[in-house]
Structure formats: structure tokens, C-alpha cells
TrEMBL record:
Residues 1-22 form the signal peptide. This is Lipoprotein. It comes from the Bacteria. It comes from Prevotella intermedia. Keywords: Signal.
């Protein structure tokens, strides 16, 4: 009798341990940190950055724009509504006036020594990285800029790392191209 129970126990143990179903993850970690570059070829420094994750479907409802400024005076007077809504209020306003809040919102200080981490459900998103580089009494050259990137959060063996670099220039503001910290700038700026 003990032998039959022992064999039954072994058989059940083998069946349970040989289950072919692998664990399916429904969320994934995303690491985030912003950077700024003093010149196109210089090393990158940390930049206080707010990361806002929206469902990808919002792209058809907004009109992000890039702007140029001729000098510091013009740069200091800018009024980019998308930048200010994202930076100060944490939302996007659609073309028809509706307000859309992000699925996730995380701020990473330039003083942080580690990447910020957010755990996000698997899916497709658009990430807005907003420079919060503030240098009083004048606005920082890295300020008043945001970049965006479409991402797909899915199962992977390593973390998804987002590390945009903001150019330090008064000649551009609003939407700037996403350039990862490990990439060279694909556009010229002064």
C-alpha cells in the first residue's frame, strides 16, 4: 500500500513538473532617464525629464509641432501648448479640445544616479519625454523641448531602456527628434 502511494505521488509530481505551459508575463519593466548634450559631439549629462506613456491610438488626435527661434529673446517667449500641458499638467489636449491623461507618468531628476523604472502592461504606446531642465534666472537651452517615440511593450529577456537626449540650443523648441543616449544626432543644431 505504501509502495502504491509512493508511486502515485511520484507520478503526480512528474506530471505537475513536466507542465509544458510557460509563465506568460502581462507586464514588463521599462527603464527611463533623460540626457542633454552641450554640443552634437559632447558627452551627455543627465537632464531632469518627465516621461508620459499614452496609448498609441492618441497619435491621430494630436498635432505635435517643432518650432525654431531666432534668438534667446524669442526662445524665452514661446508658448507651445503641448509642451506646457505635458510638463505642467501631465496631459494632452486633442484637436477637438478633449483632455487625455497618460497611462503612466514618471519623473526622473537629473540628480538621480539610477534609471527610473515603471512596470507597464504589454501593449503599444507612445512615450513623450519632456525636458524639465530649468536654469534660473534664464531658461535652460535644453528646456522647452519634448520628444516622442512609439514603443511596443512585450515579453523580452531584458528591460526596455528609454534614454532620450535633448539638444542644448535656443534655436529649436517644442517637438525635437528622439535621439537615444547611445546614438549620434541625426540632425544639425547650433
Amino acid at each position: 500500500m505504501k509502495k502504491k502511494n509512493y508511486l502515485l505521488f511520484l507520478l503526480i509530481s512528474i506530471l505537475v513538473s513536466c507542465n509544458s505551459k510557460e509563465e506568460v508575463f502581462t507586464t514588463h519593466d521599462v527603464w527611463v532617464m533623460g540626457f542633454k548634450a552641450l554640443s552634437m559631439d559632447s558627452d551627455r549629462d543627465h537632464c531632469s525629464t518627465r516621461f508620459l506613456f499614452f496609448k498609441k491610438s492618441i497619435l491621430s488626435e494630436i498635432e505635435p509641432k517643432s518650432y525654431t527661434a531666432n534668438d534667446f529673446s524669442e526662445f524665452g517667449k514661446i508658448k507651445d501648448p503641448i509642451f506646457f500641458n505635458l510638463a505642467d499638467n501631465g496631459f494632452l489636449k486633442t484637436k477637438d479640445g478633449n483632455i487625455i491623461y497618460p497611462v503612466f507618468d514618471i519623473y526622473v531628476s537629473e540628480k538621480s544616479e539610477t534609471y527610473g523604472t515603471v512596470t507597464i502592461p504589454v501593449g503599444k504606446y507612445v512615450v513623450f519625454a519632456v525636458s524639465r531642465d530649468v536654469n534660473y534666472p534664464a531658461r535652460s537651452q535644453a528646456a522647452l523641448k519634448y520628444c516622442m517615440k512609439e514603443i511596443e511593450v512585450k515579453e523580452r529577456t531584458s528591460e526596455l531602456i528609454l534614454s532620450p537626449t535633448f539638444p542644448t540650443t535656443y534655436s529649436m523648441y517644442g517637438l525635437v527628434p528622439w535621439v537615444d543616449v547611445s546614438e549620434k544626432f541625426s540632425y544639425n543644431w547650433k
